[in-house]
Specification:
It contains 10 helices and 12 strands. It is of the alpha/beta class. Strand 3, helix 3 and strand 4 form a beta-alpha-beta unit.
């Protein structure tokens, strides 16, 4: 019988890519939505849980109550519901914002989720690992996100609003490989927090320069930052732990952006 994996946030960008990879590896994948009944999870008997659902990471997600309910309330309730289950692994998605100087409600609640995870590990010995995703991009990312917006508006000849900022950009395929590797090593990583990124960082201007190879007539308008944590400070993953597991990126930024550009262009032209 196939091992069962339950995903919250299954229909999102990362959740969709993760579901595909897990199914390719032979797992049965089911989704769990925010309004599903948490206390039914033990009846489903999942072998693994991936908790990706979150709220507040996008500049237009400002409802503080929903940020709290999703990032802390839902996280606690799921862990509480499964604390006596013989899970093989529970992967909790946190935030790379822990390295930034500026606090936000999103960052604060996601870090609270990490501390909840550690508490459940200590008291109930649940095999939970926190993953800290850096700036994941690639085919299938939401149209309003930075890179898809540049590609879409660049192809259409529309003006693009750009802020200052730096990111550790990691291509979706490489990120999912890192996630699966954490899953495979959850027993030895239990209670830890693992960065998944490249260990390097690029500015928004760097991304524009690379994309201009295929979009030579970009119309750029520089604006003030939309999020308080879009800074020029250092924002890159510590790759020591993930590299020790044998994970190294396959795509550099130019290669990943080219694959992303080709994917969106095919759907827009």
């Amino acid at each position: 019988m196939k091992e069962l994996v339950l995903l919250t946030g299954k229909d999102g960008f990362i959740g969709t890519a993760l579901s595909v990879r897990l199914e390719q590896l032979g797992y049965k994948v089911i989704g769990f939505k925010h309004d599903d009944y948490v206390w039914d999870i033990p009846k489903l008997k999942p072998d693994y849980i991936f908790h990706l659902a979150s709220f507040g990471n996008h500049y237009n997600q400002t409802d503080e109550e929903e940020i709290f309910e999703t990032n802390i309330g839902l996280t606690f309730n799921i862990m509480e519901a499964v604390k006596h289950m013989p899970l093989k692994g529970f992967i909790n998605f946190s935030t790379s914002g822990h390295v930034l100087e500026c606090d936000s409600f999103y960052g604060a609640t996601k870090m609270a989720g990490e501390y909840l995870a550690r508490a459940f590990v200590k008291k109930y010995n649940i095999p939970i690992v926190n993953i800290r995703p850096y700036s994941v991009y690639g085919p299938g990312e939401a149209d309003f996100r930075f890179i898809p917006t540049i590609i879409r508006k660049g192809i259409k000849g529309e003006e693009i609003e750009v802020t200052e900022g730096v990111h550790d950009w990691i291509y979706i395929d490489d990120f999912i490989t890192g996630v699966i590797t954490v899953m495979d090593n959850v027993g030895t990583l239990k209670g830890q927090s693992i960065d998944i990124g490249t260990g390097g960082q690029y500015s928004n201007e760097d991304v524009l320069e690379i994309l201009s190879q295929w979009l030579p007539d970009l119309k750029i308008k520089h604006i003030d930052k939309k999020r308080s944590y879009d800074t020029l400070a250092e924002w890159k993953a510590n790759t020591e732990k993930i590299a020790s597991l044998g994970v190294f990126r396959t795509f550099n930024l130019e290669e990943g952006l080219k694959k992303t550009y080709d994917w969106y262009k095919e759907r827009l032209v």
